[in-house]
Structures are given as C-alpha cells and as structure tokens.
Amino acid sequence: MKLAIATLFFAAPAAAFAPSASFGANSALKMSTEAATEKAFAKLPASVKPGVVTGQALKDLLDDAKAKGYAIPGVNIVGTNSINSCIEAAAKYGGPIMVTFSKGGGQFIAGKAADNTDDAASIAGCIAGALHVRQVAKLYGVPVVLHTDHCQKAWLPWIDGLLEASQDYYEKNGEPLFSSHMLDLSEESLEENIGICKTYMEKFAKLDMLLEFELGVTGGEEDGVDNTDVDSSRLYTQPEEVWYAYQQLSEVPNAMFTCAASFGNVHGVYAPGNVDLQPIILHNSQKFIQEKLDNDNEKNMYFVFHGGSGSDVKDIKYAIEAGVIKMNIDTDTQWAFWDGVRAYEAEHHDYLQAQIGNPDGDDKPNKKYYDPRMSLRAGEEAMAARLCEAAEDLNCVNVLN
Ligand SMILES: [Zn+2]
Description:
The protein is of the alpha/beta class. It has helices spanning about 1-10, 25-35, 55-70, 80-95, 105-110, 120-140, 155-175, 190-205, 240-250, 280-295, 315-320, 330-345, 365-370, 370-395; strands spanning about 50, 70-75, 95-100, 145-150, 180-185, 210-215, 220, 225, 255-260, 265, 305, 325-330, 355-360, 360-365. The strands form four sheets. Strands 1-4-3-2-12-11 form a six-stranded parallel β-sheet.
C-alpha cells in the first residue's frame, strides 16, 4: 500500500530525463518512448528499477549515491550461494548491491574441471552467473549492478569474450548483459594504461556500459593478482594522473567511467598499522579536477574504493565524502561465509560424523544435518549479515524507500 501511494505521488514525468541525461544516447531515447513514469523506489530516480541496472539507470544511481553520500558494496562472488547472499543482504539493508565476478570466480562457476583454454571457462562462468543474477534479482526487489573485477593486460581476452556476450544481449534486449567492467592496467605506464582504457571505453560506450579503471596500485594479494612487493610510492595516486585520465576518457562520446585511485589501500586484511590510508588523495584529486574544469561540481570524478576489507570506518566515510560511490569487499565476506559454515559445523558436530548415529541414538539418521543446503545456508546467512554491517559503514542503509 505504501508503495502504491509513493507511485501515485512521486511519479516523475518523462521530462525528468531531459536534458541532464547526458549518458546513454541509445537508452535515453528508449526511455522517453517507454514512458519511464513509474517510480519503483521512492528515494531513487525513476529510471532505477528492481533487477540489473545499466546505462542511464546506472548513471542515475551513481549520481544519487554521489549526491547523497553513500557507497554501494561491491562484492566478489564465486557461485549462486554468494550471489544470493549479496542480493538477500541488499533487500535487508534496503540499498543497491554490486555483484562482482573475478576471472577466477567466473572459472569457478563454470567448474574447476572445465576446459579453460582461451579463458573459455572464465567467460562461460561469468555469463552463467550474470544470467542467474538477471533471473533472480527482481525477486528480491533491489537494484543490482553487474560488474567484473581486476583485468590486467594479459587477461583482456576474458573481457573481450564478455563484451561479445553483452553485444549479443544488447541486440536482443536493448541493454548490455553486464553493467560495467574493470580494467586494471596499472602495471603499465600511465599513457599506455589510459590509452588502452580509451580504446575499450569506445567499445563500452556503444553498449551503454561503464568502465572502471585503476590508477596506481592496490597493494596486497587477491585472486591471482599479487602486489605485495610493490614499491610503496605507487600505492598513492597523484591528482595530475586522475585529471589526465578524466580528460582522456571524457573525449569518448557517451563515456561513463569510475576511477579506482590508490590511496594506500590494500587487498586482504592485515595486522593493524600495516596499512596507511590517505583518502585525502581523493579529495585533492577532486579539487584539482574542479579547478581545471572551472565548474561548480566538487565531485566531478566517481571514485571506487578497492581493498575495503578491514578499513577504518572513519577512513571509509572520509573517502565517501570525496565521491567514492562503491567499495569492494571480498576478504571480509569470504571470512563471513566460512565463519557461518564453521559455526554450523561446531553447533551440530556430533550429528555430522556419520550418515547414521548421533547423540540421540546409534540408529538415528543425520540426513537433515549433512544436506549441503544446511551448511551452505549458514554461510549465506553469515555473509549477508556481514554485508548489512558493511552497508552501514557505507551509509547505504534504507536508501531505496
Ligand atoms: Zn581490487
């Protein structure tokens, strides 16, 4: 009933999309004809609907986050259990979620035994996972961003395969399969990094997709990317570099991009004192860009925060003030999932040692305890609970209605 009233009174006229809707020439046209008048979420722009958001809807969502000062949790997933945990959590905390596939996570979804020649399994697994998200996300009534994680230069064929899938999907459905991809060419020189990003930005823009790029290096180790020995100066991006990237990518028509700038962040969770976060770098970069553009926008760049696990809440909040609209959480949700399974086993240990026989009797069956759904569900619940905590840190609670 509440929802119906909201729809009646807050219905936005189609004109709300003009002329500020600068992104998505194709999708903007489509929306004006589809009469995007019904608001699905009272607090969000009318373009944002339950399910996967792409193109203009994605831009509107990120603008909303930037303007109101919240960031979307970006979570690395490895299968339907972790995917569903993410979306379940989003429904609980009342906000959007970014479901993120790594190359290794995609391969895991296809199955570790599947032939991965030319990244075939990584590509197939990511597509299968994306289709799963598209099929179930609407059931939870939340907006979901479909994204992929770090892709270094040697891994570009993986993204090429996913782009092909988005092209196919676009031809049939008028939107890409994935909302966005990350390219991490921070191992290369700045010019080569941004040069390659620009080439891909052109491909992405044709499909109304967003590009996330990386400047500097996120320390630590994650999913086949080991930066534990990298020189510490490279862990801190310079405002000039952010401006250079901004200028270059902005030259592409219909471009939409986010920047993973390094400010001392690392993948993984380490002992306190090992990480020196400097989110002031993001603030300085915004100031630098604003001066160059000479406009009244204090947050021209959309930033994303990698290596969020284990970060100080005060650093997180300060980073959000600088235009961070997404924070990656992987290590902490991995731990949470495992911890849920571990706690389940600890609680029911004596019922999990044989198919038959437990403290209630030598002939008692244990089927209902060892059914994989029991332990996996315990993992899902623990992961979702951890994500609800993350959403609080990110000011992402109750931002839908
Ligand atoms: Zn990362």
